[in-house]
């Protein structure tokens, strides 16, 4: 399989850059980083990633779940949440957004790598049906 293109939506710059570096070390291509939903939607249209890693509490007038819902509807791109929020209300909203994974912070990079592989495979399988 070709190198997967990953887009990161995270408003904490240090976390985003650290994650990007780790993903690149795992042979993923990080095609962009955004700190808000609107910025992400603009860049994603231009970069066409294979998968988006999305924080839920991000800058701007849309949170990560609203942004992911829009991504799912407009671009059919799989989204994995990386978030500190594990409460039932947030989980229910995430379930309804069509996400492919939900990882609580602090996360291990191996968890993210495994979730990316599973999400990409699931998305590929669903597209071939």
Automatic annotation (TrEMBL):
GO annotation terms (biological process): phosphorelay signal transduction system
The record ties this protein, via Gene3D superfamilies, to: 3.40.50.2300
Q: What superkingdom heads the lineage?
A: Bacteria
Give residue numbers for the modification (4-aspartylphosphate). 55
Protein name (database record): Response regulator
InterPro entries in alphabetical order: Bact_response_regulator, CheY-like_superfamily, Sig_transdc_resp-reg_receiver
* Key words, A-Z: Phosphoprotein
Domain Response regulatory residues, every copy: 5-120
Cross-referenced SMART domains, in alphabetical order?
REC (SM00448)
